[in-house]
Amino acid sequence: MANSLAGEVAYTLRGLGDVEVRRFFAGSSLRLGGVQFAFVMKGVLYLRVNDLTRGKFEDAGCKPFSYAGGDRKMTVASYYEAPADVMEDPSMLRRWVRDAHRAAIQAKSAGRRGWQRRAKRT
Questions:
Q1: Helices 2-12 & 90-121, crossing angle to 10 degrees?
Q2: Which tens digit of pLDDT belongs to each residue from 92-116?
């Protein structure tokens, strides 16, 4: 099911570039230009968010990805479920994915800068 949804989403996004679907834990990840911007888990698409985009997910009533981690619930606040209306409208999905891809690129870039700063201190 997850792989099927990931394939459908990748097909819908084909105009954005070569969207790659890869195995990701019990689901599938979606990558564009080598950058993961989304994943599908248990039939739900989760998109990468940042401080600029998180609010629109919350306004749409979407929740961040979470899973059971031992005796507690773990929340991954950097990925939120895609709104149902976005999933039903290909052009809207492409807009939200562009934002998710930008958020993923920014996060990847910020991580590299942090690593470079730490490396210089050593």
A1: 100
A2: 999 999 999 999 999 988 875 444 4
**Single pTM value for the model:** 0.86
**CA trace torsion 43, 86, 84, 6 (10° rounding):** -10
Residues 54, 80: contact at Cβ < 8 Å? yes
Contacts of 120 (CB under 8 A, 6+ apart): none
Residue that the structure tokens 């800068």 belong to: 113
Q: Where are the domains of the chain?
A: 2-121
pLDDT tens for 82-93 read 999 999 999 999
B/e letters for 6-32, b = 16+ CB within 10 Å, e = fewer, are: beebbebbeeeeebebeebeebbbbbb
Top CATH class, 2-121: alpha beta
